[in-house]
Amino acid sequence: MNIEHFKREHVELLASVTKLRELVQSGVQEHAQAILGQLIAMSAVIKLHLAAEDRVLYPALLQATDPQIAQTGKRFQDEMGDLAQVYAAFASRWNLATKIGQDPDGFRRDANDVFKALHLRVQRENRELYPLAEQI
After folding, report:
1. Is there a contact between 100 and 107 (Cβ–Cβ < 8 Å)?
2. What's the CATH class of domain 4-133?
3. Are 77 and 64 in contact (CB under 8 A)?
4. Residue-level pLDDT at 80
5. Domain ranges, ordered by start, for the chain
6. 95: helix, strand or coil
């Protein structure tokens, strides 16, 4: 299976997280509008990536003849539901620049938690899941 598109999206996503961190480090209140813009852009990429995984990647993994590949695909798919919900709640909670600017410490805490989990997930997919997908 060709998964180059998924890999490119991971690179783009991690670059977006880096840009978001830079904005946060330079001042949440001062850059609340830019931070919101970055979150909106990231949310679109994340939603499209997850939809493509659900439509293409996971069905292919689940139908693999190798039971280890199918089981790993199922495990990753099940785990992703939780992270997708956590991210959606985060994006909903911080959907206005005024919310971000009024609670910079709360935003930093939430963003650190969510993006740490997202980063770990991307790394696990790159290291564990994508090599299996390339075998089918």
Report:
1. yes
2. mainly alpha
3. no
4. 80
5. 4-133
6. coil
